[in-house]
């Protein structure tokens, strides 16, 4: 583990849930939503979500990337981000 990875906040399902609960992404994200429940991000919400990921985690993800179709649940989003960003 590098000093840089230790300094970055960890991406967890709770962190993804917090980002998604931003009113610009999901105005009414239920607090008890199951991590595997289906989500549908609209294009503006997705762009804002990716912007927040860049600000908080330094991740630069292009919204046109094919994997974004896989952003269908909190768990799937988290699993992808941990694979890109690390734990």
Describe the structure.
The chain has 87 residues and is an all-alpha fold. Helices cover 46% and strands 0% of the residues. The protein starts with a helix and ends with a helix. It comes from Streptomyces endocoffeicus. Residues 37-81 form the Carrier domain. InterPro entries: ACP-like_sf, PP-bd_ACP.
Identify the overall geometry. Answer: globular
What gap, in angstroms, lies between the N and C termini?
10 Å
What is the N-to-C order of secondary-structure elements (H for helix, E for strand)? HHHH
Strand content: under 5%
Give the helix tally: 4
Mind summarizing the main beta sheet? none
- Beta strand count: 0
Q: What does the radius of gyration come to?
A: 13 Å
Structural class: mainly alpha
Which residue ranges are poorly predicted, with pLDDT under 50 across at least 5 consecutive positions?
Answer: none
Overall mean confidence score, pLDDT: 84
Helix content: 40-55%
How would you summarize the topology of this molecule?
Elements: H1 3-7, H2 13-20, H3 43-57, H4 74-85
Task: Please sum up the structure shown.
The protein contains four helices and no strands. It has helices spanning 3-7, 13-20, 43-57, 74-85.
Give the key terms.
87 residues; mainly alpha; 4 helices; 46% helix
């Amino acid at each position: 583990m590098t000093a840089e990875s230790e300094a970055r906040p960890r991406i967890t399902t709770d962190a993804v849930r917090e980002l998604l609960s931003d009113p610009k992404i999901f105005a009414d994200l239920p607090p008890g939503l199951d991590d595997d429940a289906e989500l549908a991000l609209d294009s503006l919400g997705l762009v804002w979500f990716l912007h927040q990921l860049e600000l908080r985690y330094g991740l630069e993800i292009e919204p046109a990337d094919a994997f974004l179709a896989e952003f269908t649940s909190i768990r799937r989003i988290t699993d992808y981000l941990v694979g890109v960003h690390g734990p």
